[in-house]
Every structure is written in C-alpha cells, then in structure tokens.
Amino acid sequence: MFKLPPTFFTSKKGILYMLLSSFCFAIMSAMAKEMSVRFPSVQLVFFRSAVGLPFLFASLWLKPARQVGGKLYFIILRGLLGAFTLYCLFYTLEHLSLSLTNTYGQAFPLFIAIFSFFLIPNETLNGRQVLFLLIGFFGILLIFRPETGGSLWNHSTGIIYAIGTALGYMAIKESQKYYDSRWVVISFMGAGLIASILSLVSGTWFELPNSFLTGTWIDPSPWEWAKALVMGLLALGVQYFTTQALLNEKTSIVGAVGNSSVLFSIGIDIMVGQGFPNWITCLGMSLVIFGSYQITKRA
After folding, report:
1. 262-276 pLDDT tens trace
2. DSSP conformation letters of the chain
3. pTM summary value
4. By the number of CB atoms within 10 A of the CB, which of 23, 156, 243, 261 ranks highest?
5. Residue 295 CB: number of other CB atoms within 10 A?
6. 60 in any annotated domain
7. In angstroms, rounded to a whole number, what is the distance separating the alpha carbons of residues 22 and 244?
8. Are 47 and 192 in contact (CB under 8 A)?
9. How confident is the model at residue 297 (pLDDT cuts 50, 70, 90)?
10. What integer pLDDT is reported at residue 251 of this predicted model?
11. How many domains does the chain have?
C-alpha cells in the first residue's frame, strides 16, 4: 500500500511540541511579570499552583495512575524543590527582565553536570564537558551584574532558580521510575500551594513586608482572576508539551529547542518596551545557552 512520506509536522513532532512548550512558558512568564506590579511574588506562586491541581486530579480520576510506588521520599523531595524553585522563578521575574530570568533558568544543565559528578557514583566529567561548563559559567558572569538591572540579590535568586531546577530534574528522573508523572507534578504544585498559603497568611496576619518568603494578600478583580487562570493553564501546557516532546525526540535536541524560550522572552521584552539587552548581556546569554546545550550532548 502506498504511503505518503512523513511531513515536517509528523517527523518533527518533538521539536514542535518543545517550541509550543517554550512559547507557553514565555507567555506565562510575561503574564506573571505584568501581574507582579500589583501582586507579591508569593501570591503568584499561589495562582500558579492552585489552578493546575484540579485539572491534574481530574486527570487521575479519569485515568488512574499505574505505578510501582514505595519511594515516597522522592516525591517529597521533588515537592520541596519544586516549591522552592517556584518561589525563585516568580521573585526573579518580579525584579529582572523576562530574558534574563529565562536565561538563568536555561543554565540548569550546567548544574546537573556538577551535581551528577559529586552525587552519582562513577559519574565523571571529561575535558570537553569541563570546557563547556567553563564557557557556560563565564556567560553567567557576564550577565551576573547589577547594572544589567536589579540588585545582586535579585541575580542571586536567578542562580538559585537554576540550581533548584537542576536538582528538581534529578529528583524527577528518579521519581518517575516509581510514580506516575502526574503525581510528580502534583507534588510540587501541592507543596507550592501549601507554602504560598503559609507565606500569604503570615504576611497578611502579621503585616510583614513583601519579600521572597512573605506577602500581603491582594484581592484580585474578576479580570485578574481570569488572567491567573490563563497563567495556570499555560503552566499546565508547559508540562504537557515538554512531556510530549521528550516522548518524540532525543533529550539533547529537546534541550536545545527549549532554549527558544529565551528568544521568545527577548521578543516579548522588546514588544513591551523593555528594549534589547546590551551586547555584553547578549554575549553572556549566548554563552550560557551554548554551554548548556553542549553539556547535554554525549561526549
């Protein structure tokens, strides 16, 4: 029987899924940054976590999980790391540009390589990997400057965001051996929801200033509730499209395409009047992306 040759859309599904994931993440980040003008970062964590959980529980009800289980500490670790990473993401978005925040986020492969070397037996770094690690970290040094916008502390949360993402990915890799991926996502959304409620209650009750860990609850308007819903749905889209991309394409290629979120973020920054980053920052961003991509490839 005659078969049509595969089209670009069927042969490159993994790439297309990852482009969709990156686009969703860039739009979600842009909405979070716009909303951070009025809402504290911990309230954005609350929005991000609360919206997705009902959809995930509905999914589990319609299609129950099939899993081995027995390693609950992986789920707990993923939840704690995920909640902490959400705090870092939204705090950094509040104080730095979209493109800088997403560049820090895309540096996570550099930290995975380092943590794997120290935490996983028989894991080594060859000369090629060391070279790309140095290139990536030199890029971080070029953008890790207060004059690029924001204080030293704000840039530090960007680095911590990358470290938390790296540790979270390592926890996901182990957790998915024993648990359905939806439970892995629920773990960090649930932890983020509980942590953000505690932060908002303490900040509101004791009238604490808005900070990395505390915030005063602000009543959203109906339109702002709608934007929070869209932001949460976009976050679910990131999870879904990334999972589909990994099922249809090599991890190294998915990682490379994932860097497109930085390009989308630069475009959004320009559209909203933030302007194009200066050449030193652009060079640093390019080195981070290049080093991060190369470190994910097999030697």
Report:
1. 888 888 888 877 677
2. ---PPPPHHHHTHHHHHHHHHHHHHHHHHHHHHHHTTTS-HHHHHHHHHHHHHHHHHHHHHHS--------HHHHHHHHHHHHHHHHHHHHHHHHS-HHHHHHHHTTHHHHHHHHHHHHSTT----HHHHHHHHHHHHHHHHH--GGGSS-HHHHHHHHHHHHHHHHHHHHHHHHTTTS-HHHHHHHHHHHHHHHHHHHHHHHHHTTPPP-SS-----PPPHHHHHHHHHHHHHHHHHHHHHHHHHHHS-HHHHHHHHTHHHHHHHHHHHHTT--PPPHHHHHHHHHHHHHHHHHHS--
3. 0.84
4. 261
5. 26
6. yes
7. 13
8. no
9. low
10. 62
11. 1
Amino acid at 80: L
Cβ atoms < 10 Å from Cβ of 290: 16
CB contact at 8 A, 120 and 275: no
Asked if the model's pLDDT at residue 11 lies above 70, the reply is no
Q: Identify whether 121 is part of a domain.
A: yes
Whole-angstrom distance, CA of residue 180 vs CA of residue 190: 15
The residue written with tokens 């609360």 in the block is: 50
Distance of CA 293 to the CA centre of its chain: 16
Using 50, 70 and 90 to split pLDDT, how confident is the model at 13? confident
Tokens 């497109």 correspond to 260
Domain presence at residue 268: yes
Its domain, for residue 178, covers 39-296
**Alpha carbon separation from 101 to 60, 139, 154 (Å, rounded):** 32, 14, 10
- Give the Cα separation of 243 and 233 in Å (integer): 15
Least confident among 73-77, 190-194, 197-201, 272-276: 272-276
In a domain, 33, yes or no: no
pLDDT score of 252:
61
Task: Give every CB contact of residue 116 below 8 A, 6+ residues apart in sequence.
Answer: 123, 170
Q: Judge residue 66's burial from the number of C-beta atoms within 10 Å of its C-beta, 0-12 exposed, 13-18 middle, 19 or more buried.
A: exposed
